[in-house]
Amino acid sequence: MKNLFFTLFFISTSITVYSQKFRAGLVMPTKEFKLCCVYIPDSGLVIYNQPNGNPQGEICLGKPNGSNEFYTASIKKQNSKQILVQENFEMVGYEVMALIVIDSKSGYVKLKNGYWISIEELKSKNLKLTSWMDYAIEKNTEWYANKPGLNLRTGPSIAYNKIVTLKGDLFGINLTTERKGKWCKVNVTQYRKHPCSGEDNLIIKTYSGWVKLISEEETLNVWHYGKGC
């Protein structure tokens, strides 16, 4: 009985610590995912009205296309079924989608549509939570500042001097692994025209500094071309 108590305590503590570290981001696979192109298991995911609440139904995959690939998902309840709209997903690869998570509490994470899913269920189905910061850094692509722009500073807070304001897709932002809170150290390339133009001698200037990568609303302050040029 004593060993059982400590085992349950360890599991509970692990879930709590896991959810405390993670606030918002994406549901990603822990290993190669066998289905394309939505990161939802074929067994579905149970949705709840609140953490430790009542099951409301499940998120399930849509119908496969001719190549047996899944591009849609649905919310299935007892007497209804509706498509899970695009705003609930982030394109993390070429036509590959991951669920967006906006909050975490008591071993559950909240989706953009207001439903909650269990962290334990995600782990049991080879899925994991990836913060926006980790995702953006691991993505290893060129990012661009959201409107109205993003200040590049000499250090990781607004107390540091502004170097330049990054706007549009002519300031390519490459993230480093150095971070502090919501800030990330970056290398920036300023272009005369975007590299997709195919022209030569496009670089005007390069910079190095810090940007506030994560907003106060726990969203990314940057975007990228999901399908390339």
Description:
- The chain has 229 residues and is mainly beta.
- It has three helices and 17 strands.
- The protein has helices at residues 2-21, 119-124, 132-139, and strands spanning 25-29, 45-48, 55-61, 73-76, 81-83, 89-93, 96-105, 108-111, 116-118, 127-131, 144-145, 150-153, 162-166, 171-180, 183-191, 203-212, 222-223.
- Strands 1, 6, 7, 8, 9 and 10 form a six-stranded antiparallel β-sheet that branches.
- Strand 12 and strand 13 form a beta hairpin.
- The termini are far apart.
- The model is unreliable at 1-20 (pLDDT under 50).
Main features:
229 residues, mainly beta, six-stranded antiparallel sheet, four-stranded antiparallel sheet, 17 strands, 15% helix, 40% strand, disordered N terminus
Task: Give the helix/strand layout.
Layout: H1 2-21, E1 25-29, E2 45-48, E3 55-61, E4 73-76, E5 81-83, E6 89-93, E7 96-105, E8 108-111, E9 116-118, H2 119-124, E10 127-131, H3 132-139, E11 144-145, E12 150-153, E13 162-166, E14 171-180, E15 183-191, E16 203-212, E17 222-223
Antiparallel strand pairs: 1-7, 1-10, 2-3, 3-4, 4-5, 6-7, 7-8, 8-9, 11-17, 12-13, 14-15, 15-16
